[in-house]
């Protein structure tokens, strides 16, 4: 028969599911991740990051798109990427049949897609030493130097990249709509949602939303996607009342909200000074792990309250790492979110804690 321990855990989670008000979604980028998340009880994908889909063997295509000097070059890169993206989205929408899948438009900093400056510089220097023409390498070196940023995480990423690289977001939106149409034609029930990263002002979302709607309207049978935004730049939280009327949903990106709110680099703090801060008791646990009602949590409360006041239909979730942290789940319940989204293996814990929060048990005092 069944393992008694697993049986008991299953009963416990069922009990929590019966009580909790928070939905529990998962962050998943592939069909396999989504399958795993579903088996662990996730009732949606709260964040599908599309960036890994542009790395590896597809990287040359992305380079070609970003560094294109002619419309033909740009268009041929976009056409190739469209086919690949459509297949990616069919996979994840099929795995989550009947459940929402929030697909985030491309986010990472530009430099991740560009060939490394030093490699190019070395190639050009070698060619010149040998008295050869560095040709395309020299042109690429100049282009990459032009785009070089001192602080890429505060630079050309997220919505900014989408507004600068013509056709990029439109290609992704078309891929989502065509994938949904295909899944539906095959008898499935896809629920894609389109999420814009790194919004800091309502004007950015206005421009991108208009572009998204325009593309959706041109795809037969694929035009029902809800459109929403990450709230991860502090200014977005502080202007949530302006943004909410043109968003179907908000999803808090607590990783970036913490980075920008505290002014701590996500990529550097752990080794640089966190252990000293923990030792001194400046905080008891890394702010990148856990969130409460103070500080960054206040930004969240402001955005929830002002967002809901401006748009009562707004769905609000969180998809940063904190979405699967037990204490933070209690805070997200208290502040009135609709769902948390976390990595698949943390889904059971999030379900349990959401249930405990609803019956008033456990967690740090979060309100
Ligand atoms: C976030 O910033 O919290 C987030 C979910 O996005 P990413 O981690 O991909 O920046
Ligand atoms: Mg982010």
UniProtKB/TrEMBL annotation:
Every PEP-utilising enzyme C-terminal domain range: 17-355
Active site: 319 (proton donor)
Residues given in the record as substrate binding sites: 49, 104, 232, 253-256
Family in the record: Belongs to the PEP-utilizing enzyme family.
Name recorded for this polypeptide: Pyruvate, phosphate dikinase
Residue numbers binding Mg(2+): 232, 256
Transmembrane domains' residue ranges: none
């Amino acid at each position: 028969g069944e393992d008694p321990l697993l049986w008991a855990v299953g009963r416990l989670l069922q009990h929590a599911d019966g009580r909790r008000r928070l939905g529990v979604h998962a962050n998943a980028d592939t069909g396999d991740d989504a399958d795993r998340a579903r088996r662990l009880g996730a009732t949606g994908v709260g964040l599908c990051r599309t960036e890994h889909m542009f790395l590896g063997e597809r990287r040359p295509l992305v380079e070609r798109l970003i560094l294109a000097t002619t419309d033909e070059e740009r268009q041929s890169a976009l056409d190739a990427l469209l086919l690949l993206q459509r297949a990616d989205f069919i996979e994840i929408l099929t795995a989550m049949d009947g459940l929402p899948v929030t697909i985030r438009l491309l986010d990472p900093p530009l430099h991740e897609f560009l060939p490394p400056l030093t490699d190019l510089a070395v190639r050009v220097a070698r060619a010149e030493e040998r008295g050869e023409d560095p040709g395309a390498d020299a042109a690429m070196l100049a282009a990459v130097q032009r785009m070089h940023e001192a602080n890429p995480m505060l630079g050309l990423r997220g919505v900014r990249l989408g507004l600068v690289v013509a056709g990029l977001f439109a290609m992704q939106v078309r891929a989502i709509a065509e994938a949904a149409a295909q899944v539906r034609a095959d008898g499935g029930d896809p629920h894609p949602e389109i999420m814009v990263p790194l919004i800091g002002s309502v004007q950015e979302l206005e421009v991108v939303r208009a572009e998204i709607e325009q593309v959706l309207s041109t795809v037969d049978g694929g035009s029902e996607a809800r459109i929403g935004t990450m709230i991860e730049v502090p200014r977005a939280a502080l202007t949530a009342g302006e943004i909410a009327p043109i968003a179907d949903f908000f999803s808090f990106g607590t990783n970036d909200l913490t980075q920008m709110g505290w002014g701590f680099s996500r990529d550097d703090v752990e080794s640089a000074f966190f252990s000293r801060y923990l030792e001194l008791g400046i905080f008891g646990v890394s702010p990148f792990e856990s969130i409460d009602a103070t500080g960054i949590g206040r930004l969240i409360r402001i955005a929830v309250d002002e967002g809901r006041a401006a748009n009562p239909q707004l769905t609000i979730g969180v998809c940063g790492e904190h979405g699967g942290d037990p204490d933070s789940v209690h805070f997200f319940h208290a502040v009135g979110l609709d769902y948390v989204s976390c990595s698949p293996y943390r889904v059971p814990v999030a379900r349990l804690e959401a249930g405990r929060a609803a019956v008033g048990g456990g967690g740090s005092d979060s309100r």
